[in-house]
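Example 3.2
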Amino acid sequence: MRYSSIFKSRWWALVWAGGILWTAYDVASAQPQTATVDNNAAAAEGTDATGAAITPEQAQDLNEALNAF
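Structure, written as C-alpha cells:
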C-alpha cells in the first residue's frame, strides 16, 4: 500500500496512525520489567559502571572534582 493512497481517505489515515501507535506501544511494552528494578537497586547501593561498590573516598573525590568546575 502506498502512502499517497492512505491519506486519500480520512478513515484509512486513522487506521494507519492507529497501527503506528499500536506498534510503538507493543515495542515499548516488550521490555522486561525486572531490569528496571535491578538497576534501581544498584543505584541505591552506590555502584560504579563495573558493578563494584563505591567507597566514601571515591565519592568525596568525585564531589571535589565536580565542585572544581
